[in-house]
Amino acid sequence: MLIRNSIASDPKSFEITSKSTYLNRRSFLQGGAALAGAALFPWSVSAAMPKKFKNLIKSPFSTDEPVNKYDEVTGYNNFYEFGTGKTDPMDNSATFESRPWSVTVDGLCDKPGQLDIEDLLSKFQQEERIYRLRCVEAWSMVVPWVGVQLSSILEKFEPNSKAKYVEFTTLVDKKRFPGQNYPIVPWPYTEGLRMDEAMHPLTLMATGVFGEELPPQNGAPLRLVVPWKYGFKSIKSIVRIRFTDQQPTSTWMQQAPNEYGFYANVNPAVDHPRWSQAKERRIGQFFRQPTLPFNGYADEVASLYKGMDLKANF
Ligand code: MTE
């Protein structure tokens, strides 16, 4: 994601480490932080160990393109709550606690309530879905997410017929999210989907990546993944889901309404005002490749936008 006057950059070679070097460095950092925190917060030690999912089912929606490396997916991130640099989320999140965690689900629904993360992990079928992620900054990755189809979560709260949109909100906590001490964007980070987009089978509530629970830098403990939209729609560390009859104003619409629209469907034919969207650089590759309409998911989702002017509704 870019704010005016900043320049997008691909990861430097020194930022890309092998998985073993990366994991050693992480366990060193987490171990140090855990030791430092153990006296005050005895649960920090166990929180540092990512849990592996058992009984994952493979999704038929997965792409067969090669998956990006672990250290690319977890070491080159956009998560402004931890800072604006690509390695800030990894560097500043070692002590982040994602438990206890619950999500308030309210607004225009018949059964408002709380979604508990442990219930989400134990009572819903977790799937592995390998999706392309296309960032608005014109880079992309292929990520092996683990998660639950969003529709199966939303149905439990029985949205009523007045609900036309769903709004998502990230946690506000200046202690856990150091970036929130600075007015980088208006906090909390918010996003929204039209109801039919939220209920679409491709829309995933991710709980993990690479077969393990999400690390903080990827949005622990739960984040949205909407693979046909630019990455900024995939909001992280969600604490509220609200059904509404009004189109939500997302963080990036507030920040720069002429640059970031509500729909944000990946569209090589509609340039960002400051750069082209025709091509993308797959992280880890040298040559750029053409960007596909709806990020390659046109067969599944183009019908949602039939008759709409996609230049006006960018
Ligand atoms: N969610 C929150 N709360 N804060 C953010 O800064 N960045 C977005 C999105 N979700 C962001 C966020 C952007 S711009 C992108 S491209 C994706 O997260 C990146 O997801 P990843 O870091 O897991 O690749």
Please provide a written account of the structure.
With 314 residues, the protein is α+β, with helices and mostly antiparallel strands. It has a single domain, classed as Oxidoreductase, molybdopterin-binding domain (Sulfite Oxidase, Chain A, domain 2). The chain is built from 9 helices and 13 strands. It has helices spanning 19-38, 44-47, 70-75, 88-91, 117-123, 150-154, 195-198, 251-255, 298-301; strands spanning 57-58, 102-107, 113-116, 127-134, 139-149, 165-170, 190-194, 204-209, 212-213, 223-225, 238-244, 279-282, 289-290. Strands 1, 4, 5, 8, 9, 10, 12 and 13 form an 8-stranded mixed β-sheet that branches. Strands 3-2-11-6-7 form a 5-stranded mixed β-sheet. The structure holds ligand MTE. Ligand MTE binds at residues 1, 77-81, 133, 135, 170, 189, 218, 231-232, 234-237.
Secondary-structure map:
Blueprint: H1 19-38, H2 44-47, E1 57-58, H3 70-75, H4 88-91, E2 102-107, E3 113-116, H5 117-123, E4 127-134, E5 139-149, H6 150-154, E6 165-170, E7 190-194, H7 195-198, E8 204-209, E9 212-213, E10 223-225, E11 238-244, H8 251-255, E12 279-282, E13 289-290, H9 298-301
Parallel strand pairs: 1-4, 2-11, 5-12
Antiparallel strand pairs: 2-3, 4-5, 5-8, 6-7, 6-11, 8-9, 8-10, 12-13
The protein binds ligand MTE.
